[in-house]
Amino acid sequence: MNEQLDNELLTGDLRKNLLKMSIPTMLGFFLQAVYDIVDMIWIGRISASAVAGVTIFSTVFWMVEVLNEIIGTSSISLISQNYGMGNTEKTRKVVEQTLTFKALVAIIAAVFMAFFLEPLLGFFTSEKEVVQAALDYGYIRIFFLPIMFSSYSVNTALRCLGDAKSPMYIMIAAAITNIILDPLFMFEYFPGTNIPGLNLGVFGAALATVISTVVAFSIGFGMLLKGDKKVKISIKGLFSLDWEIDKKLLTIGLPSGIEILSRNLASIFTLKFVSLYGTNTVAAMGIGGRLFNFAFMPIMGIVMGSSTIVGQCLGANDIKRAKDTAKFSALFNFVMMGILSIIAIIFPKQLMKIFIDDVNVIEVGKSMIQIMIPALAFGGAAMGLGSVFAGSGHNTPFLLSSLVSRWGVQVPLIFLATKVFHLSVIYVWISFLVADAMEMLIVFIAYKRGTWENKRVS
C-alpha cells in the first residue's frame, strides 16, 4: 500500500538535508574509529607480534564482510526506494527480511570461518606468537558474527528511514562501552590505576568488542520493535522468509559483494607481499589500517547519507535531486580528505608514536601514512559519486572499478616492486595511491553514462 509520507529529505535544501543525514553518521563512525585507534594503542602495549596477529586476523575476517556487503547494499536501495514511494508495508517487510536473512547467512559464514581460520593464518606467517594472538582475538569475534551483522542491519534500516541520529547514539553507546572495557579486560591493572583487570590480553580486546556489539544491536532492535522510527517490525515477521525479497537481497548487492571480495583478496595478497619485509612492516601496516579506517569514517558518513537520499529521490522519480546530492557528496569528501592528507604529510612520525614506541615500526610507518592517507581524497570523491549506485541498486560499476584498480593496477605493481625489482616498501604504499586514482576515474565514467538513472529495485 502506498501512502503520502511527510518526507523532508525529498524537499528543501539538498545540502542541508545531506549534512543533516551525514553528520550524525559521521559522528557515530568517528567515535567508533576512535575506539579502533584506542584498541590498537592498547594492543601495541602488548607487543609488535600482538599487533601483527590482530592485523592478519582482521584482514582474513573481512572476507566474510562480502556477505554483509551483499545484503546490506541491497537493503539500502530496497528500503529507501520503497520508503520514498510511500510503501510502508513493503518497507517493513524488507527490514524484517534483512535482519533474518543476514543473521542466517552469518551463522553459515561463522561455521566455515571457524574451521578454516588457522590454515588461513598460516598463509601469512609461521611465527607462533603472531598466530596465537590472531587465534586468541579471532575465535570469539567469529562466534558473535551473527550479532555483528544484525547490528549493522538495524542501523542501516534506521538511516534509510531518514533517522540518522538514532544510529549515531547507538554507535556512541557501543564505542564508549568498548573504550571502557578494553583496558579492563586486557591488562592486570587498569592502566594508571590500582583497579584490577582481567589480564586477558588480545582476547580481552575481542571480548570488549563483542559485548559492545551486543549492546548496539539490543538498542537498535528495540527501537525497530517499538516502531517509534516510522516503521514497526514484528517478531512474527522475523520468523518467516519471503523468497521474493530474499532473492533481491542476494542479487541487487551481488556486484558490490564481489567487489568487496575482490578488494579483500587484493588486501590479502598485499599483506602477503608486505610480510616479506618482516613483522615490523606488518605491524606498521596494521597501525596504518586503523588510521586509514579513522580517516575513512567521515567518507562513510557522507556516502550513507547520500545513498539514502538518492534512493528516496529515485523512488519519488526526482533524478535531478539525486544527481545534485551525489555531486555535492563527492566534492565534500574530496575537500575533507584533502585537509586530512595535509595533516598526515606533515605529522607522520607523531601519528605513529601514538600507537607504538618501537622505532623500527615507526620508521616504516612514516612513509606509509604520508602516501596512503592522501589516497583517500581520490577514494572519497569516487564513493561520493558512487552513492548513486548504492541508492539505485545499480552496483556493477563498483565491481568494475575494484577489479581494474586492485587486480589490474595495484597487485601487479606490488608484484613488480617486491618480486621482480626488489624495491623498498615505499613502492607498495604508492600502489594504493595509483589504484585509488584509477578507481575514481572508472566511477566517474560510469556515473556520466547514467545507467543508474533508470534503475529501480522496489
TrEMBL record:
GO terms for biological process: monoatomic ion transport. It is a multi-pass membrane protein. It holds the Pfam family MatE. It comes from the Bacteria. GO terms for cellular component: plasma membrane. The chain crosses the membrane at residues 18-35, 99-117, 137-158, 170-190, 202-225, 294-316, 328-347, 367-391, 424-447. Keywords: Antiport, Cell membrane, Ion transport, Membrane, Transmembrane, Transmembrane helix, Transport. The keyword Transport applies. Its main location: membrane. CDD domains: MATE_NorM_like. InterPro entries: MATE_fam, MATE_MdtK, MdtK-like. GO terms for molecular function: antiporter activity; xenobiotic transmembrane transporter activity. NCBIfam families: matE. PANTHER family: FMN_FAD EXPORTER YEEO-RELATED (PTHR43298:SF2), MULTIDRUG RESISTANCE PROTEIN NORM-RELATED (PTHR43298). Belongs to the multi antimicrobial extrusion (MATE) (TC 2.A.66.1) family. Multidrug efflux pump. This is Probable multidrug resistance protein NorM. The lineage of its organism: Bacteria, Bacillati, Bacillota, Tissierellia, Tissierellales.
